[in-house]
Amino acid sequence: MKYTILTALIVQFLYTTNDDLPNGRVTGNLIFSPQTKTLLLIDGYTSHPTDGTNNVYSWDGKDWKKIPASGPDSKSLSSAALDTKNNKIVVFGGIGNKGYQSLHGDTWTFDGSQWQQVATNDIGKVAPGEPCFAALLTPQGKIIVDFIVVEAEPADGGGFLLDCPRALAPTLVEKLNFYKLRATIPAAEAFRPLKSGGCPLVSG
Prior knowledge:
Layout: H1 2-16, E1 29-33, E2 38-42, E3 56-59, E4 64-67, E5 79-83, E6 88-96, E7 99-110, E8 115-117, E9 132-137, E10 143-151, E11 160-163, H2 169-176
Antiparallel strand pairs: 1-2, 2-3, 3-4, 5-6, 6-7, 7-8, 9-10, 10-11
């Protein structure tokens, strides 16, 4: 009996100290990554790390593994999708450790090992009369185009205006079109069973 209790304690100790296991999540993003050929768990925190670290975990069909990568702050309720043209996961927005008082409007891409911020500032902080300066970056972190983001008044139709040098405007438009919304998806069709996504690690 004593041996059985000791074994249970050892198993519990190993489980709770395994750094490769993700903690409990809600509204997390679980997306197949062509680079790693695994499912990646991004965001969905209920209890945020005190240092704001946002860990990514991969699932290979058998084991979890933490991917160390410096990137966005820990969030929940973010949106994510696979950019099949560039084989990168695009993550937008979410809420931080202060709930809806810490809304995020930043956009990041993840290639399976590294994060890259699409723009260098958080447009979630922009409001009418409160613009911000930002830049569009290459995967290596070099500036492609810098610009000022201004939110239009609701009476003027709302939306955002980007102010950049005229010579760089065509480049900015070209790059932003990579992330252009192609269609509005009805809420009832926004989610589908995981098994219908074509991931080879999911069956049944």
